[in-house]
Write a structure and sequence with these properties.
26% strand; alpha+beta; 3 helices; 174 residues; six-stranded antiparallel β-sheet; 11 strands
Length: 174
C-alpha cells in the first residue's frame, strides 16, 4: 500500500522536515517544473506583466512578473533561469514597486540593457526591449492588438449613436 502511494505522489519514503518540507524524486520534480513552466505561458496584463523571450533558445518563452522581487540568472536558484553562457549566475532583479517594474543589474559581467542602453536600474514600460548578456526579451503589459479601435468598435459605436438619436427624436417629437 505504501509503495503504491509513493508511486502515485512521487514522494520518497523519508519523513517530512519540522516545517512540513516534503522530499520528492527527481523525475517528479522535473514533471512539476514542466507544469509550472506551462502555467507561465499567460497573457500580459498591467496587473501581471510578462517578459517574452526574443533571442534564439528563449524565443516565445513567457515569464509572468509577480509582485515583489524576481531574480534572473543562470544559476538554478533564480526565479527565472536562463541557460545562456552570456548571462551571469545572478544577473538581474526585476522589482514590482507599487505597480512599477524596475530592472536592476546585479554586477553582471555582460551587463543589463534596456532599449540598447546599458543600465544599472531602469523603470520598465510596455514594449521596452531588455537584454541580459545575449538573452533578449520584451516587456509586455498588454497583448498585441489590445486597446486598438477596430471596425467592430466603430460599428457598435455607430449603432449606439443611432439608437440615442432615435430615442431623442421619439422623445421630443409631438
Amino acid at each position: 500500500m505504501e509503495g503504491n502511494r509513493q508511486a502515485e505522489t512521487g514522494r520518497t519514503n523519508r519523513s517530512a522536515g519540522p516545517q512540513g518540507t516534503m522530499l520528492f524524486q527527481a523525475d517528479t520534480l522535473q514533471t512539476r517544473a514542466g507544469e509550472a513552466e506551462s502555467r507561465q505561458d499567460s497573457r500580459a496584463t498591467v496587473a501581471e506583466p510578462i517578459i517574452e523571450g526574443r533571442s534564439p533558445g528563449i524565443e516565445g518563452r513567457r515569464f509572468t512578473l509577480r509582485a515583489g522581487r524576481q531574480t534572473i540568472g543562470r544559476r538554478g536558484n533564480n526565479d527565472i533561469v536562463l541557460d545562456d553562457a552570456s548571462v551571469s549566475s545572478s544577473h538581474a532583479w526585476i522589482l514590482n514597486q507599487q505597480g512599477h517594474h524596475v530592472i536592476m543589474n546585479m554586477l553582471s559581467t555582460n551587463g543589463t540593457f534596456v532599449n540598447d542602453k546599458r543600465v544599472h536600474e531602469a523603470t520598465l514600460k510596455h514594449g521596452d526591449r531588455i537584454r541580459l548578456g545575449q538573452a533578449e526579451f520584451v516587456f509586455l503589459t498588454r497583448e498585441a492588438g489590445a486597446g486598438r479601435v477596430g471596425p467592430r468598435h466603430w460599428l457598435v459605436g455607430g449603432l449606439l449613436v443611432a439608437a440615442m438619436a432615435l430615442t431623442l427624436y421619439l422623445t421630443y417629437t409631438p
